[in-house]
């Protein structure tokens, strides 16, 4: 084997051009596959950094008949399920919490979680320093405590172990640090800087708290437990509650309310899974095309060594020995391509940041780890074995005597391998057609998506978030006063055309929903109670975001806490219950049936707004309430500018801190940036598939050229005879072009057939375009056919220049 390897290295040194082309092709294709696999591995395959993370599940409240399959969990629902599901090894409840860190420096906003003390035991994770929470820390009136992330500990305390016992001021409250989690630990994302205990009051534990679903529940399954087993327990708990609480029974029945369990990893990556596997499949197709090209080169090279192989056979080398010799050379070539592919993969992973892959779920974990290195080497060796065995077997198929005779003519060796090379190039074309068609459809889909009207005007808009501490802003009047102070400063800033606030901003990954009724709505028997998205907004929000007012009016400064409560609804709600009627003047009731009505008069109707993504089909109604009448301690600032919105970032910060010097402002982005971030799960894969569609086109074209060039070289004597007998250059060119057209035609037909067989899978990822769109399915083969026929023309042109005398003399 060592002698074969030395022989391979000598052969590579004799043909550096061939070696460089083959290794570069393999490095590009293998490296691209490894880079994409690094994303797939980090996002879809790699376990979380907690022991046996595959046993973690989400437990949701679910209202399927109201179009709400996954809702938050109330505290009594959590307590019921933690105690009542015997298959839970442990369970925890948490919700996001924003903290204002106060000190000598500029106020800073921290991202944190309020968690039940059982979170860390559910994750089976211990601190690196100190301790985590106990039930005593979560008692009402217990001293405030916090556990820090490793990154926060290092950035703010210099990794000083003496941090334990120190106090920090969060939201105007002194909090004692009791622990630091180890490096590499995170929950539920790497941006979380600290955790504080989630305290349940007696009122929150009572049945009156049901429906207040602002938290998330996770659980750890016992070994061997299935989701179906847990679901049965959840259904039994709900049946018992329905029997025990008749006042909720009617609503639960009409909404389909119950508990729902889902795998932790599966739920987090559900939106991106299919697209990532599609990209991996597309890049794998490009790898196969590249390998087929290299195999074709190896065949041509083996024919050039036919005499050497024949001599080896004549001296007693069996076919297995010759195959091994050629296979070792091929594996060495592919191994070199794989090693160089690691560098390409590392560069590709770095480039992915520019495409936004780090914004994907778990995308922060993409790196060149040991799993990616192993995948790269296996990819190189596996493709080397497959695509090396084919030319090695074909090149050693003849006996020694025939091979020695044929080596002198240099004609029949090509005939012996021409069929295999033709099959390889046909496969290349077929794969390229499939890849180009898929990339073309994704591009058209993304273009259609960018043309969608989101229901507002995103250009020239700057946004930011403000979260106010409860202790300081404990009264509605204080919230409204700060709002008025900030907006007064913002609207007076040069370059600001309009400014406003809302509690829930489109494409900001936050939402609020609520049930409602109306005296003017009569529901059919058994119909679910109306349920919609709710926001508070101020008079400036309409023009700042560019909403479209369809009828009635928007809020004004006259809508205060002392005036009639008013609400603006969207057209979805108007069409759902008052189609063909003007709902202005009707009322919305926010209290449950049987309670004293809380009536809000409808004063206007606005156009629907896409909230989560541009491909969203807006079917959930939205209700807007005046901020002065429904103030919240967390809101988004929206500023429409005359020029570049990012240029007003400093002025926006000054407006907030001029109103409250202790209040940080964060998550500052233009509206266009927010929309771009939300589109990343479609944008990045589309760019990559388009890029590798181009690579596939180039490689397939080179493959066609290589086969026909080999065809012309092997048949030069025949062409010379034909020309000597009176054939014209056009006749020779037509012969070559027919050969190329047969290859291209067969590849196009096979590629279209292969794509159509998989079109349903692609169709699930498209927006606004059919998976069998005639234009795209015609354009992809047309582009490839044009490039391939140009590649056919070059060898055909060379064939017409054969000198009969020289060709016959060589024969």
What does this structure look like?
Helix content is 51%, strand content 16%. Residues 406-414 have low confidence and may be disordered. Helix 16 (476-491) runs antiparallel to helix 19. The protein has 811 residues and is of the alpha+beta class. A hairpin with a 2-residue loop joins strand 7 (167-170) and strand 8 (173-180). The strands form three sheets. Strands 14, 15, 16, 17, 18, 19 and 20 form a seven-stranded mixed β-sheet that branches. The protein has three domains: 53-265, no CATH class; 410-448 and 678-811, no CATH class; 469-662, no CATH class.
What tags apply to this protein structure?
six-stranded mixed beta barrel; single chain; seven-stranded mixed β-sheet; alpha+beta; 3 domains; 811 residues; 16% strand
Compose a concise summary of this entry:
The chain is of the alpha+beta class and 811 residues long.
Report the structural category: alpha+beta
Q: What proportion of the residues form beta strands (DSSP E)?
A: 15-25%
Number of strands: 22
Calculate the terminal CA-CA distance, rounded to whole Å. 38 Å
Mean pLDDT: 87
Shape: elongated
Oligomer: single chain
Total domains: 3
Topology record:
Layout: H1 2-14, H2 16-45, E1 56-63, E2 68-71, H3 75-84, E3 88-102, E4 108-115, H4 119-123, E5 129-130, E6 145-148, H5 150-157, E7 167-170, E8 173-180, E9 194-197, H6 202-205, E10 216-221, H7 227-244, H8 246-255, E11 258-263, H9 264-268, H10 273-304, H11 306-314, H12 319-355, H13 370-395, H14 400-409, H15 412-450, E12 461-467, H16 476-491, E13 496-502, E14 513-515, E15 531-537, H17 541-545, E16 549-552, E17 566-570, H18 571-578, E18 587-589, E19 599-606, E20 622-626, E21 634-641, H19 649-659, E22 666-670, H20 671-714, H21 716-724, H22 729-763, H23 774-799, H24 804-810
